[in-house]
Design goal:
The complex is a heterodimer of chains A (115) and B (113).
Chain A (H helix, E strand, L loop, with lengths): L4 E3 L2 E4 L5 E6 L6 E7 L6 E7 L2 E5 L7 E4 L6 E5 L8 E8 L9 E2 L3 E5 L1
Parallel strand pairs in A: 2-11
Antiparallel strand pairs in A: 1-3, 3-8, 4-5, 4-9, 5-6, 7-8, 9-10, 9-11
Chain B lengths: L3 E2 L4 E5 L4 E7 L6 E7 L6 E7 L4 E4 L2 E6 L4 E6 L8 E8 L7 E3 L3 E6 L1
Parallel strand pairs in B: 2-11
Antiparallel strand pairs in B: 1-3, 3-8, 4-5, 4-9, 6-7, 7-8, 9-10, 9-11
Classes of the chains: A mainly beta (115), B mainly beta (113).
Chain lengths: 115, 113
């Protein structure tokens, strides 16, 4: 068990470019979450998958954001036409139905800087 | 509207003494409460949780107390150690609804030598 992996760890992009992040959850976990954390704030929920189904999306997730989990394993989060306000740490987490009451396991995050 | 509130951005405690981190919540439907610890450049790490049907849960040096009538919980760390210096997030979830975890803004704990 290697934990939750996120790639890349850091991304610097110019405003208006598209970026894509990848998350590999713990293999036996069927639930996968994306959160965003900005300076001085706690992690804010973006979206949630159970297996390959995207069950909930936050209103923080504008139409420039899209997330997929095509085979119920890894997930990608894409941001189109990035804006400076998108600069944040993007965190992925996973859990199983049996561990949901004991919290998620988070990855180390992808830090996005939009210049 | 913040459903989970941590009103102290930072806290300094002498090594060996007790650290008490506080948290308030507004949603009475929350049925699980959790504390996470976060070091710089790492993701949050689960620390301890408590069900809404309990008022105390203990794990080693960490104890979480829940006061449902006051919608308040606290994390006690005793004795505090240098490695406890980190940001601590209070969080809550409606497990029987969607188990989405809602986080507070965090409290930065400094353990002083």
């Amino acid at each position: 068990d290697t934990g939750v992996s996120q790639d890349p760890r850091h991304k610097i992009t110019k405003r208006g470019q598209n970026v894509t992040f990848r998350c590999d959850p713990i293999s036996e976990h069927n639930r996968l979450y994306w959160y965003r954390q900005t300076l001085g704030q706690g992690p804010e929920f973006l979206t949630y998958f159970q297996n390959e189904a995207q069950l909930e999306k936050s209103r923080l997730l504008s139409d420039r954001f899209s997330a997929e989990r095509p085979k119920g394993s890894f997930s990608t989060l894409e941001i189109q036409r990035t804006e400076q306000g998108d600069s944040a740490m993007y965190l992925c987490a996973s859990s199983s139905d049996l561990t949901v009451a004991y919290g998620y396991t988070f990855g180390s995050g992808t830090r996005l800087t939009v210049v | 509207d913040q459903q989970v509130k941590q009103n102290s951005p930072s806290l300094s405690v002498q090594e060996g003494r007790i650290s008490i981190l506080n948290c308030d919540y507004t949603n009475s439907m929350f049925d699980y409460f959790l504390w996470y610890k976060k070091y710089p450049a790492e993701g949050p790490t689960f620390l301890i949780s408590i069900s809404s049907i309990k008022d105390k849960n203990e794990d080693g040096r960490f104890t979480v107390f829940l006061n449902k009538s006051a919608k308040h919980l606290s994390l006690h760390i005793v004795p505090s150690q240098p490695g406890d210096s980190a940001v601590y997030f209070c969080a809550a979830s409606e497990v029987n609804r969607d188990d989405k975890i809602i986080f507070g803004k965090g409290t930065r704990l400094h353990i002083l030598p």
